[in-house]
């Protein structure tokens, strides 16, 4: 087991912030390591130091002579007009057949391989970059937040790639599900120190908490013993006959020391907007809606209802229209056709890029939070929320105009959560948050009494928060009948089938857009499904009405004394029973269909 990279006594600071304080670690040639730590802890700085792009103040980084690093670049490495195949050949120096073979592992073929690479969505461009990494035969992959902005399908493909990659990897990610699936070891950077744990992230977090709890219990015992010894010393040191015992106990007391309990940065707690009077019924309805842009329809014939209190997750591949749908729902984009109706008393709170890039730049962080918060919010509430989203100490007096994009996003989130919205529309709320803060946000949304409509690429977050799933796919939007975990399984199955087809030489399966005929059939099926879904809802209402009428007539029949009237009621009851039976049979047929 060769040591590819050895870091010894690494020191680095920015101003008064200590990032590395004597940090040490060894990365070996066959281990995949998940790299975690709070935002601002210095993870990306550490990666740059390993790459040689950042100088340490003190310490050394030693590379093995055979080290070949593959680094997933966040910037755009593509030339204007070149295809993915052109880029792969230029990047690797490999022939076209070899580049095509490796690209196939990421389902890159046809127009995706030979068309302009800059025309591809961010997720597909990431697939091209990953194929380029693999063609260069690295023995250490370094990935910095690789799942940011990747759709579910590309995340799963990346997972499969990493599982089959039999060399080393160092991966920074806030996505617990991704780290758990890909990494056998966990590296934590906290307070300038690096801690390597030989286990996945879940086991590491459990171990860390168990260790802290053990230290707390030991400390409690030590403190109790210290108090007992101190009482004995105070009572006996002035007495000649017991002074020697007091001196002995004093030496014991000196040897008793508590263990410093290792704690992370302050625990994050986030509160959601307070909704004093939660509503019931339908909060949003759209009929025959078409969404998109002038000259380009993204999806049409959309009929949806969302109920008060639901946490509806919008899912689908990148480029299918998730963000377009959200923007249309909040009226930052006009519908092409149809209309959207929000329930009475709805107050929308929106978190999306078009919102947090337009904050008032004249305000400070604290001024923005005080302006956005509801009337009952205290200054301390604002300070607590600011701290939870990493605006602490002097940072609360920063002007919005000097904040980075990530800081503006967190500030927008903080202001939204301090407000009074009873419907939250959130587009990728976890992208600028670390693991602990994403977890705290999930907890807050679970306690929230309002409605949430959101998108996210974080599977752990989606699985915890979502109560129902809305899928955007191939020009349609519909309710998915199942929870997020079942949706995840269906996507996994599609990818597995594609990989089996590729292995057997059958290239017909692809996660890209289906052929035109298949797309038409799919849309027709989706329209039929939507019709069935609508009929199903109407039937449920009809069955409930008929059942109530049947009970009412039964009650009348039990007390009716007029024989003629009783016969009429009996005939009416028989007719209702037949109608109810037919409705129930149709309901069962449609339930099987959907």
UniProtKB/TrEMBL annotation:
Give residue spans, biased composition: Basic and acidic residues. Answer: 524-535
Keywords in alphabetical order: ATP-binding, Nucleotide-binding
Task: Read off the InterPro entries from this record.
Answer: AAA+_ATPase, ABC_tran_C, ABC_tran_Xtn, ABC_transporter-like_ATP-bd, ABC_transporter-like_CS, ABCF_ATPase, P-loop_NTPase, Val-tRNA_synth_C_sf
Q: Where is the AAA+ ATPase domain?
A: 29-219, 308-476
What Pfam family is a match, any one? ABC_tran_Xtn
Compositionally biased intervals (Polar residues) = 238-247
| Lineage: superkingdom | Bacteria
**Record-linked SUPFAM superfamilies:** P-loop containing nucleoside triphosphate hydrolases
Chain residue ranges for the region called Disordered: 237-259, 494-535, 545-564
CDD domains with a match to the protein in the record: ABCF_EF-3
Name any one GO molecular function. ATP binding
Spell out the protein name for this chain.
Answer: ABC-F family ATP-binding cassette domain-containing protein
